[in-house]
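Quick one - inputs below.
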Amino acid sequence: MLDRIDKKKTLMAQACQTLGRQINIMEVCGTHTVAIFRSGIRSILPEGIKLLSGPGCPVCVTDQGYIDVVLKLARRSDCLIATYGDMMRVPGKNGSLETKQPNDNVRIVLSSEDALQLAKDNPQKNVVFIAVGFETTAPATAVVVKEAAAQGIDNFSIMSGHKLVVPAMRALLSQKNHNIDAFLCPGHVSAIIGFGAFAEIVESFSRPCVVAGFEPMQIIEGLAEICRQLAAGTPLLKSIYTAVVTEKGNTTAQKIIAECFDPADGLWRGLGMIEKSTLKLKKKYSRFDALKRFGVTEIPVEDTTGCRCGEVLCGLIDPADCKLFVQNCTPLTPIGPCMVSSEGACAAWFKYGRKTTDEENQKR
Amino acid sequence: MQRGLNMEEKQLMKKTKNDKILLAHGGGGQLSDDLIRNLLLPKLKNDTLAQLGDSAKLNLSSSSLCFTTDSYVVKPLFFNGGDIGKLAVCGTVNDLAVAGAKPIALALSLIIETGFKIELLEKILDSVSRAAKENDVNIVTGDTKTVEAGAADKIFINTAGIGVRLPDIDLDLSKIAVADKIIINGTIGDHGMTIISQREGMKFQSQLKSDCAGLADLIGQLLTNFNGVKFMRDPTRGGLAATLNEISKATGLSIEVRQNDVPVNQTVQAAADMLGFDVLNIANEGKFIAVVSPQSADDCLNICRKHPLGKEAAIIGQVVKTHDAPVVEIETEIGGRRIVQMPYGDQLPRIC
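Output:
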């Protein structure tokens, strides 16, 4: 394996030489971010290859207003909040689900099915499922909404925070000051939407899009393939995660998403409003929309905290460039969402990329 | 000391026999006495405990002692590979053993919520008894308190332990030097992943089994055969990452670990990957880290591998010079390097 890695490294270094500049590659998947840090890939890449951790962690791109609405619902004594564990510490304007749960009415679930079960087990409560995630978790949410409708489970609703990956990539490349040369595309999302979904990025923006799995060797091969394309001046769409990802993806999952949701404009932390980038329940399921059920009409506006998660998510700065990093913002006392989720760029940087606090101080 | 029950009282007890713990079981009266004499004493049988004195009287072979305590609040109480009773004995035995002592006697304190099934208490006490026997220690004193339902979660156990220090053994962080080798006696993360997987809401099918075990025998063999062992610690909460960071911070020296050499059970790795955990941070309950001189490393390893609790022992890294600040670094399977941080807080399960 080490021989193969050496060959790929040489290829990457040659690409930098051919282009005569640094190559910036963005991974848009939190699982890639963690795998890259955990396996120490950054430490073996040739100088001149820079990896940017993009908006690939669903927790990180959830806007503050959404969290504030969740907290508001959590304060109702008739509500039971069902959430994935990662959302517990994400700070809203005034605290998080972990610090602000006056009625002890927040439950961590591992799946949407668990959330629906919670509703069945607690008929006297309104169970609100905090449905976040990309195309990977959206089908599971759709399934339980359909189940709830079929079984008439009316004390169940969802706060859809589901987001779509491709519109975000489009938004990133439409920013004037972006520095993204190519995308290492997400393995799990691609398994659902198919690698064909990234064709529009390659065509509209001439940026290589390569889908890779999560084994370190897959990631290295993906990066090398991107460098090869850039050096040759031929940006392509390619999947090297052939064991899992097909061009068309999982059509059953796509169908069930389409049955339950419509694409809608929506807010992303750091990226702002992105056209048709979120999933909203279709009219026929709107009675399961928590916002409608509880009459929430206004989503609070984001507060400024000095947190630069937005710039981190766009690949404009490294986490260490943020003044709050390590000093005020740590996984135990997160200010921005990228420090909360284990897949967040700041958390990964904090956990694997940092030497010592002293060193950080000297750098500053 | 209270008298035993006469026939009449015994019959009365039989009639009112309760299968659950009542507040009165910890009240110091008849029911307490009954619980101690009919359940605890027979299970934990030994002469010192049978005296039921206010303190246990011990005659030890040396006045050079180690003394430790730990409280056990594990949830679930019963897990694959052990239960809170086994854990309460092994955990304290291991704390004594890694300090270079032969464990002699334990104190056992139970805090039980009313309504707790006596049948489960019996099961836990059986485990305590078995683990004590296996580790050649006696439960010489103890206490039982009961609290109202809701004031505790089923049962909490505290054990304290006394051990006699092995002659001429003085394990100390200050002895650790550059080039010393780090040995572990087997796979990491088994206990933590077993607990996490069995915990409410995470009941996915698995073949995980806690490594919960008392290490006194293996450590005793290691320490009495070699003088090259400089320091030992059991990597429990916080896992290997926490223990190595503690050693690095305390000595001011850095530690290098090779990922390929760290033994990990494949099921544990798969479960950790699935839930987004780093196995280096996951708790162990039957493992030790030994820092040994480079000359004695191979011999120590061989001793470990001959013991049932050390079959998969491995040299996983070494102590190295510090450049900027002391760090624990791991060489990954692809030859990359990264820092292993002190774990922080609870690890949250990932969502995609």
